[in-house]
Structures
1.
Amino acid sequence: MLARVTRSGVTESVHDGAVAVMDTDGRLLASYGDIDALFFARSSVKPFQATVSAECGADLPPEWLALACASHTGAPIHVATVRDMLRTSGLSERDLGTPADWPSGRNRDRLLRASQIWPLPVYHNCSGKHAAFLRACRAQGWDTAGYTEPDHPLQQRFRSLLSEVTGQADFEVGVDGCGAPTYTVSVRTLARAFSRLGNDGHFDDVFSAMHRFPRLVSGMEMPDAEFAIHTHGISKRGAEANLGLAIRGFGSIAIKVLDGESRPIGPVVTDVLDQVGWLAPSVADSLRSATRVPMSGGGVEVGTVQSVVRLDVK
């Protein structure tokens, strides 16, 4: 068990999954659960997709590079930045392969109050990644139609990089929510990839952009932003409750929650960081507060999500 959810002193739900902790050289330091079970990486590998876009000439200053790595919430800064990425390359929102979507949470409420009630592709949380894909295609002279197909040159380059950083030779291929290809990884291989991301100079530009602009990468009040804010690190979540975290000079952590529920990720990863000694006590206290997930009843807190993971230290 990774975490339990308590309400009024009673365990109401439990979450199981797997965690891997690696050092800066990709050696396994600690783990919990089946770290070799496969799942689709989804958005957790966006930093590597952004790296490929940049290397293909997408010309991404730091703020744009952060948006290329983002699962954003459709806040005005996110939408305006994606529109700039498209406009300055002679592209438009019609070129985006993302499905029409709504902003999330409070950003959707803001648009509803303004009577702008229609979903748009630019609001999709992956629109920054797709704008970077399109800019790379323009730079390389590749056809922008079909840029999300697995056999497109851009996607082939990404698959090659993913194989290099994970150490995997083979992947199952699926379709992500945004329409781009997604590939299977394990907690072990995702942790290996993030160890490279945080400590290999090849990825310095992406690491720096994500660390400088964590709320461009994830939006407000998200655990991956809090991990970047509280450490010299970066973090990226993926759908169905997986996340990779890299801390410069320490190593990496990867997590997958088996039931696909993301609410345990913040408390569990914070606890893991504390268990392996990567946080000063004051930082650990601050991060625990920032990633706390309260359960409410009658308008007051009556429980919380509690990490119960116990690492097997190697």
2.
Amino acid sequence: MRSTPLLPLPGGSIRYTHPVQQGHPTTWCEISGAHLAHNLQLFRRLLRPGTGVAAVVKANAYGHGVAQVVPVLEQLGVEMYAVHSLAEAQEVRACGGQKPILIMGYLTPGQLAAMEDPTMHVLLSSPEVLQGLAARGRELGVAWPVHVKVDTGTHRQGVPPEEAAELARVAQRSGLAVVGLATHFANIEDTTDHSYAFLQLQRFHHALRLVERVTGPLPLVHAACSAAALLFRETDFTMARLGISLYGHWPSRETYLSWLLAHGRNGIQLKPVLSWKALVGQIKAVGAREPIGYGLSYRTTRPTRLAVLPVGYAEGYPRALSNRASVLVRGSRAPVLGRVCMNITMVDVTDIPEVGEGDLATLLGQDGEERLTAEELAELAGTINYEILARLSPSLPRRLVHWPPPETT
């Protein structure tokens, strides 16, 4: 996408000139390829030698955009992609992802009957999926690769540890290729007490021993999510599934605290990959004691200058941020006034001089010395950083920036 000419403003901010005439969107996300590379390299250093990376790109790459993220990860050489659905797997392929893909979610009988690409591995969670996939494999004359999912205590998908070996045995007899074993931790992010996670790990080791008596050594054994990959080398096995932290975010405060307790402040800096920006669509003066927005939920206490932003909850800016959050304009915080609307949000720029129509507002990211994080918005909205990112509308334009990185001399 051709960049719109920019004019510098006092304080280091920028103003877009005639964005509509030049075809520039009014709100968009910027995806930093350099930060994505930094985070992946950080995990390459943390993980044990021989532990590969499955990049989790479900939910439109956690809101970052599959079309922007996958080409970068392909160049960086991740070993596998992990998605939720067949449609997501097909999108990864359409965006240039050539590495194997692990489909982790439920596949309907119709979807199984339509499977065509045997480099799309399937997380095997039930006998019903086994039967449908085996039938499709026989039609195509291929041994479809599957990873047996062990439910070690999350009580979602998968089979109990004592049933995993039998599921693997039936899969092999049905013509499937059992290439992996997987589990998922239930309580590794939300606590600094990881006793339940280690109980799950113990159960997983037991299942692995039983399954490998049937299959022989498995090349793809994985339990680690981002939190486990950050904290516990015991969970590395042969592959780690990296999601939220690949995109530059700690899974939780508790995970960060656990890191600090074990390592202090040394040795790790995750860099957020996504920034979200919008143009100021209008500046308007409002008198004192005037209501702002739907429901008259805010009344001004002084003559106020409002900046009207063309973004709202339809784009993924939570309505729960009404009268609570701020955006950044010219390096300063501009409080949200009134309710966040479907496509419009109003912010107070009374104390930010010379703000005008077409100025840049940052909803997530950094402007000058100020920064707005997904974690801050999540706390204000009563949710988690995952949801703030994953619910960014797919209709938001996403632009890959800082990629490829400049050549060093």
